[in-house]
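One record is given unchanged without comment:
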Amino acid sequence: MKVQNQESFKRILLYGALIMGVVFAIWMASFVPNADWYGTFDPAARAVLQGQSPYSQSLFVNPPWTVLLLLPFVLFPANIARGIILVFSLIALIYAGWRLQAPKAAMIALMLSPTAIGSLLAGNLDALVLLGIFLPSTWGLLILMIKPQVGFGAAIYYLFEAWRNNRAVGIIRTFGPVVLAYIISGVLFTIWMDRLIHKPSNAWNRSLFPYSIPLGLFFLWLAVQKRNKFFALAAAPFLSPYLTFYTYSIVQIGLLHEDVEKVIRRDVLQIILCIFLWTITLIFKL
């Protein structure tokens, strides 16, 4: 009985320390400057709380159901919400690495890369959106397609898989909810579609499109051949006409899958990518 009490006490101390650590991390993160959270997502979600359209914020270009993801954060003051989004994004990246059983050195290289650091500092949603890859395809697509530059490759992969498994019925079941959501959103928020069309002219665009299409198609082919959706995840940034530089972290996460080991060790690959990305960043001042 005494031993059990001691174990229970240790667990309480551990959980208490974890909670305090998260609270402290959120507090520290609330002081970190950023561009996307304060400039786009926070005001768009707060506009909804005030009975306005999220598109009253001129920089908001994501589908309207993105607000459902944002609302829990903006229940807090803006600086605290910023801290929470940074900490949750960090946890999301760590969770992805844990689910993929990535080597520690590979995860360290990923977290030290300018793309991952940039994503966390910017206060964007890439890390949270990528978690849709761990959900069943039908519902995961609703998350992934919040940012097509993150989820488009997976969507194409799911199209092949749905056809391979259940033909037309499989496609309807898999894509019905997200297609319906896009149609309804396009009808209700025509301004959203207009912004999507003009987004590639944005000054922050770091897409290599259309020159990157062959590389994106290669990853898609590999995904279909190996039946590996994470290779499809890696394809998305190369098939997008618009993305910011830190969205290339999605490629790194897609290449954390153990199938990469058939060609190169994952830790070696991630270290190479980290060095390459930092070199590109310093040369072109991205």
Notes: Residues 64 and 185 are 7 Å apart (CA to CA). The chain has a mean pLDDT of 90. The radius of gyration is 20 Å.
